[in-house]
Amino acid sequence: MIDDPTPEANDGPSLIERINEAEPFVAIRFVILQVGLSIALSIAAAPTSTLPKDLAELPTFLTGVFDKEALLSFGYPLRELVWSGEIWRLATGIVLPPGGAYFLLGVFALLVFGRLVETRLGRWKALQIYFAGGFTVVLVDFFSSSGITSGGLGALFAAAGAAAGVTLLERKVIPGVALEIPASSWVVVILLWLIAHIVESSAITLRSTLEFSSSAQIAPSGLALGAAGITGVALGLHAAAVQLSGSSVLFLPGTNPLEPRVVSRMRFLGVTWVVGLAVLCFMSWRFFSGVDYQVWKLEVPLQRGDREAQLNLKNLAAKHPKDLFLQKRLILSYLRNRAWSEAEVALDSLYQSIGEEDMGLLKARLLAHRLLRLDELRRQGGSSKQSWSYSGLSGNYDSSRERILWDRGYLARIQGDEDRMAEIREEIIEKAHSLSNASHSAEEEVEGNTRTIRSAVLNTQAWARVEFGGDLDLAFAEASDSVELDPVAGNLDTLGWVAAKQGKLEEGIQALERAFHYKDSRSLGANHFHLGWAYGQLGEEEKAQSHFKAAIKYDLDWWDQVILIDECPNCNEMMVLGVQK
After folding, report:
1. Domain boundaries, the chain
2. Does the domain formed by 446-520 have CATH 1.25.40?
3. How distant is the alpha carbon of residue 555 from its chain centre?
4. If 515 and its partner were Cys, which of 323, 479, 489, 546 is the partner (CB 3.0–4.6 Å)?
5. What is d(CA 487, CA 497) in angstroms, rounded to the nearest whole number?
């Protein structure tokens, strides 16, 4: 008879215990997870669109540029999706890795800092610090940034902060203790913080250009990484203080155990930082994201012509009179819903309030940054996005004095006010002449630049004539000269549109088709719209509808949208409901 094994004989190390024995450091497991996710990203999330030349020449993994929709399918946080109810993204974002070569630097630095933190504080405390750092990055970027972020680097910065806190207290308790972290690791942390600022800037280029808009660069902000470092310092100081005040250090020769009041101070320091972090998030929400959220929430009701939504936006704009985006968004709501009288009053008021000197370089940059914060305004949940015309980066939201002048001209055309339309047409042409004269009077002229400017001036004059009741023959001559000087998508579109308006439909279609070869993302909406109109005049209804439906995928001007709704009734529903996947 075989005796049953005793409980002692069955007892052995559990799976977790064996893993801990084989690999004692949590940081290494965290790195393995991040490397695995990074490899998966490089395979499954490679960019599907063209990239800027400086990024296209490098491997995807090194640049950190991926397909935006693929990143979102991995669970990366984007504030518009969180607003729409996908709060779980704030949790998944904690462990997801950043992109780019700087991630490789972060991996090695995390191993160095993590080893010290885990040796001194234990695995559980270290894991808490890693997750707290990642969550800090995701939280700060959620409230202060509009791009895709990740908490992967937050773990490194928190570990570095905790290591600094532990080392500081150890020196106090154990005089003469040596710094265990090589200086090169601190240099890497500083370098990564600087690189984060650079990557954040290049990410703006991708988000602000329709041609590259389907790609995204994972860019945790420098502000968020700095906050993660402070989080690590606060947690590391408190954990180390508790440990170094214990009875175990009393038996170590040459030690000076910390007094209980030091532990209380470290705890107070941690609480103070939590309050400070909450204040930072609150201020970011109040002055930035909170306004963005209100605009985003009103977007669909505004598109449907909801009067209560318009009133709410009007009140919001009144609270932020210097926010030109809000002013222009309200005007667009009037225009798209054919409230012509209200739009006229608002446009004239905005035009008068913006002086020639007000749109200086600094103000233009601030406005561009404001628009960039709303580059995902058209995303109302999931992968469904509305027309590019509803993105904050659409030309429709341009609040420069020149653009508002064009808006006023188109409104006059819609209202049938020929005198006002002629007045605005002449003002535009006069401004174009002034630009041409200024370029000729420059002290140093570059032949190529002069041709480009002259071509742009001729194109502007031709466009003003064809759109605002001018001489079509003169407009055709100016557009032809513009194309001869410097052929681009914009002036080829103008040439084709003028020819079509003259009744030379075949010639116009030929020029409009040529414009496609230049792949100018900003012109594609108008280009498709004009081709749809021309084919409609030829009686080719199927081609006309095809181009009308293609036009709504791009940055279509509001005045073309108004006509498009009449020419293609179901196109408006497609734009509002967001059928693009």
Report:
1. 22-258, 446-520, 521-581
2. yes
3. 17
4. 489
5. 15
